[in-house]
Amino acid sequence: MSLFDVAFYVLAFITVGSAIVVVSSRNIIYSAFALLFTFFGVAGLYVLLNADFIAVTQVLIYVGGILVLIIFGVMLTTKVFDVPVKTETLHVGPAIVVTGAIMGTLFGVILKTKWFDILNVQWDGTTKKIGERLMTDFLLPFEVASVVLLVALLGAVIIARRERVKS
Amino acid sequence: MLVNLSGLKSVGLEHFLIIGAILFSLGIYAVVTRKNAIMVLMGIELILNSANINFIAFSKYSTADLSGHLAAIFVIILAAAEAAIAIAIVLNIYKNFLTINIDEIDNLKR
């Protein structure tokens, strides 16, 4: 086993283990903090895949933005002091069967298919190339994404600040 | 067990795809079973992360250009927008119903 393999298995263990904690923990605070380790593990997998810019973006946006947003949502919507912050589940048995079937199908497809995976390129820094692609081939999606972000942020502010009509 | 069997080879494309499949299934499980709307949101984030892992693994091993990275960037952008709006909606639901259990918010059914 090379160092790459060892790093992969450690990161995969962190990612999958903390993802299992996310979906199985009864306490939503534990789930939110386990999601932190999942995001960091996925960022490590991106580093193994030579995606340095995506890894940094993952840490910045997912850990710095989305996870903080989720934790704020948890704090604002659970009565932390009155009742324990347990969350309930429903249909656990059928869900395990269905998701197990989905996972088995995906495993079968992945392991049986002859993938075209002979390239295994090694980039030395992807940021400059990503910037060039964003300004040439992907210019229209880039601009549309900026408009989408603007509209989404405005909409989120408007939805969250609307006063409740007293009836 | 399957991971152990394929672990005989050195780490390649299939290993990353299997991590993506595991994260996808766990995300589906969280979306289906949890009553709390924020837990459903966390499941969706897991699903989006699994899709991103697949994009970047294929970008490295199969296409050897950066199209997968660009797709992953747009997925991350849309995930950020989606999380902001979803949290705003959840806060509004909590303000109106004093709960965010998605099986108790059934006014349309009555």
From TrEMBL, chain A:
InterPro entries: NADH_UbQ/plastoQ_OxRdtase_su6 (IPR001457), Nuo/plastoQ_OxRdtase_6_NuoJ (IPR042106). It is found in: Cell membrane. It catalyses: a quinone + NADH + 5 H(+)(in) = a quinol + NAD(+) + 4 H(+)(out). Its main location: membrane. GO terms for molecular function: NADH dehydrogenase (ubiquinone) activity; quinone binding. One of its GO terms (cellular component) is plasma membrane. The chain crosses the membrane at residues 6-23, 28-49, 55-77, 89-111, 138-160. It comes from the Bacteria. Keywords: Cell membrane, Membrane, NAD, Quinone, Transmembrane, Transmembrane helix. It is a multi-pass membrane protein. Its EC number is 7.1.1.-. Belongs to the complex I subunit 6 family. NDH-1 shuttles electrons from NADH, via FMN and iron-sulfur (Fe-S) centers, to quinones in the respiratory chain. Couples the redox reaction to proton translocation (for every two electrons transferred, four hydrogen ions are translocated across the cytoplasmic membrane), and thus conserves the redox energy in a proton gradient. This is NADH-quinone oxidoreductase subunit J. It comes from Candidatus Kryptonium thompsonii.
TrEMBL record, chain B:
It holds the Pfam family Oxidored_q2. One of its GO terms (biological process) is ATP synthesis coupled electron transport. It catalyses: a quinone + NADH + 5 H(+)(in) = a quinol + NAD(+) + 4 H(+)(out). It comes from the Bacteria. The chain crosses the membrane at residues 12-32, 39-58, 70-94. InterPro entries: NADH_UbQ_OxRdtase_chain4L/K, NUOK/Mnh_C1-like. Keywords: Cell membrane, Membrane, NAD, Quinone, Translocase, Transmembrane, Transmembrane helix, Transport, Ubiquinone. Its EC number is 7.1.1.-. GO terms for cellular component: NADH dehydrogenase complex; plasma membrane. It is found in: Cell membrane; Membrane. It is a multi-pass membrane protein. Gene3D superfamilies: 1.10.287.3510. GO terms for molecular function: NADH dehydrogenase (quinone) (non-electrogenic) activity; quinone binding. PANTHER family: NADH-UBIQUINONE OXIDOREDUCTASE CHAIN 4L, NADH-UBIQUINONE OXIDOREDUCTASE SUBUNIT ND4L. Belongs to the complex I subunit 4L family. NDH-1 shuttles electrons from NADH, via FMN and iron-sulfur (Fe-S) centers, to quinones in the respiratory chain. The immediate electron acceptor for the enzyme in this species is believed to be ubiquinone. Couples the redox reaction to proton translocation (for every two electrons transferred, four hydrogen ions are translocated across the cytoplasmic membrane), and thus conserves the redox energy in a proton gradient. NDH-1 is composed of 14 different subunits. Subunits NuoA, H, J, K, L, M, N constitute the membrane sector of the complex. This is NADH-quinone oxidoreductase subunit K.
